Amino acid sequence: MTGRAPLARVWGLLASLRSRRDLFVLPILVSAVALLIWNGSGFYETFLAAGEEFTDDLKIASTTLTLNVALILFGWRYYVDVQQEVEKRRDSEERAARIASTDGMTGLLNRKGFAEAGERFRDLAAKRGQDVVIMSIRLNRFKTVNDRHGFDIGDEVLRRIAQALEASVGDSGAVARVAGDEFAVITLGDGLDKSRIDALAEALLDIAVRPLEVEGRMIHVGAFIGIASDPLGVISARALLRRADIAEAEARSIRIARPVWFDERMERELLAHGEVEQGIRMGLENGQFIPFFEPQVDLATGEVLGFEVLARWEHPLTGLIPPDRFIPVAEENGLIEALSEQVMRRALSEAAGWERRVDLSVNISPHQLNDSWLAQKLVRILTETGFPADRLIIEITETSLFADPDLARSIVTSLKNQGVRVALDDFGTGFSSLAHLRALPFDVIKIDRSFVAGIHRDRESEAIIRAVTTLANAIDVPVTVEGVETARAHSALLQLGCAYGQGWFFGKPMSADQAAQLVRERTDAPTESDGDAEARRHAG
Ligand code: G
Ligand code: G
Ligand code: MN
Fold this sequence. Notes:
Bound molecules: guanosine-5'-monophosphate, manganese (II) ion
Strand content: 15-25%
Largest sheet: 8 strands, mixed, barrel
Shape: elongated
Oligomer: single chain
Number of strands: 16
Distance between the termini: 94 Å
């Protein structure tokens, strides 16, 4: 490498000289003119000396002079040609650079052009003692414009918005289209005084919110804006745009119709999210997801009829982690299937060995109900663990039914054909509608714990529990109430005609060993409260 370096350098120098022919022509031309002066005076002297005669000296001098003039003409011509060539090349290079850094459709900068502008603005900011500010603007519902009105109108909408953004930002900044329906603005801010930037962002938001008339149709899109600034002048335009994107995503996720400034918390949350996802993958490999069991009882007798299976993450460093920390992440990343399967498999094989056969209720998330193989997978787990199908209850929420009701129905039907029962979970929250009760042949309706929590506080909770229970009893579907925490709630629910219940009053979620122990105790030595139930069972 060291041997080649000087040679390569010389070669490079020669190549660069070749491409700069224009640099040589001028000195040669100047020398030729100097030569002409010299030759001219030589000729003049020879001419005087020659008198009338055409001497050999005069012949030589005149030939030299002619050649000299020819050389100058030739050199000049060459100089003009080279000059033109250079200009043409510079033009086409400039055009190529412009094309490479602009977005063909809107004429705004593209991502590359935006990065270049970023560097320029950073220098400018340093010079003026200001800070670089980047805004990320993403149109809302732009896809539906394309779907509904066609791409031509969609393109026109983008062009109009682009023009308006550019006009609004003016010379004090640069606007780019960085993706299909995403724009970015770079400008300079005044440090802690954010009022000017806020006003600009509001104006830009206004542009996107205003209805547009394109080819006689009124089109309404809207947008979300995230802003990030770099007071220390240390963040690259690319990194700053990413921060603005994060802020924009936050605005979009909570649907804020105002510009949102990036802050470190958003970054931390994003990081934590990523870490949880990584952790779940590792945890799945190492079998760290285990079932806990929450007793479900007959409200009248207190008999433990079964358990709801609730996932826990047995983390080697932090100990037991509750599901609200990882179930939502697992659902987002498609890890929920594997996770639920791991938990369910363990729960069923544990419970298959318990002294008394009890029901197990497992939660099925909306994602799982989009899997057309779900029924087959569950049946396989039943077979492999030896847990009887008629002891399994799957809990599904109403939201599961929205995405693909037909698929959900076919999964549920084939499971029911195997003897598996189906519960409607969290009833009363979300979009509760009586239509859902008819949509599928549910075996149990679970009333959400928020109603039980309010049973003594507000009349509505009690009224809702009463109404749902009456209705369920009328169609012959038992009701399970969740979140029974006190004896008082227990007796109120009994009065209202609820059949089953679960909650801290009857037992908190417990490990497999504790659940097995509870089943054994209740089987061997019935306590006073469930003595009646035991007596009835033994009699029956
Ligand atoms: O234990 P709590 O334990 O915090 O449970 C919170 C929620 O997490 C429950 O409402 C339930 O829907 C969900 N959940 C718990 N375990 C599982 C599981 O194994 N699979 C699925 N899909 N959801 C679960
Ligand atoms: O699947 P579902 O959303 O119904 O999950 C039940 C959740 O309720 C679990 O997170 C469980 O830990 C929690 N839970 C169970 N019993 C009680 C209770 O008595 N009080 C309260 N506050 N939460 C409970
Ligand atoms: Mn549940």
